[in-house]
Amino acid sequence: MREIFSGDYGIINNSRWEEVAKNVPSGSWAAFHPLVEKIKKTIGSQGKVLDLGSGLGLFVKCCMENGFMAVALEGSSSAVEWSRRNLGIDSRVHNLKDPLPFADSSFDCIIYNDVYEHVPQYINENVFREAFRILKPKGVFWVITICRYDFVEARELEHINLTTPSELYRFGEKIGFSGTVKLNNFNITLFTPYFYDRELKFSPLKKKIRDWSKRNQRKIDFVLAPFWIPVSLLNSKFLHLPALDLLSHKSEVVFRKIKTTLR
Length: 263
Known about the structure:
Blueprint: H1 14-21, H2 33-43, E1 48-52, H3 58-65, E2 69-74, H4 77-87, E3 90-93, E4 107-113, H5 121-134, E5 135-146, H6 165-175, E6 178-181, H7 204-215, H8 217-239, E7 250-256
Parallel strand pairs: 1-2, 1-4, 2-3, 4-5
Antiparallel strand pairs: 5-7, 6-7
Helix pairs in contact: 1-4
């Protein structure tokens, strides 16, 4: 597996994004429409959005196409150059361990999508505190990361910092945010443990089960709904117990800046 980060966490090896950029289909930014629609329902159809760890900037492009002002911060200079050249977006190189280069109360919404798991916790704490600072009052900090109980993704070498929806919720609340845990799909990796054994030998059978489960995610969600949805709703709304996050496919929490000062 290629190393994504250099020794200086927050700066991504350029070679990884240079390879990814070779195979980006035209208009692939449209894949982010569902997330952008969720943001519209949360903050309205106008506002200023910041994407932290933006990769090639496809989410930011989708935001702009939907009428938002949007800015991308990314650790890879190659990814930033590609996004500027091919998407025409406002993309800037930034190391997430440093203060965010914006004034207080600058943004209506900040997205932190599939970055949390890639960096040490001290960087995440800096990101949360800086997000609080630059968000407008009642602004939204939308955090999406893998769940530590995703027994496939959690074993990937690049995923060095694992959490659960409840742990993520408690972390944001400790910083000073008011959080809402989003209900996700059922955790199908309960049926599909990691593909490799201790000697890193690949298991074709486990992969077949995994592929079938991914194709039939909605059916599995529906069939098991009487069991997992009540438990997940109770936990996400009231209990916030990490052990009950075993049923969660993702860790996704929408934080709001209700208070004006950090804890």
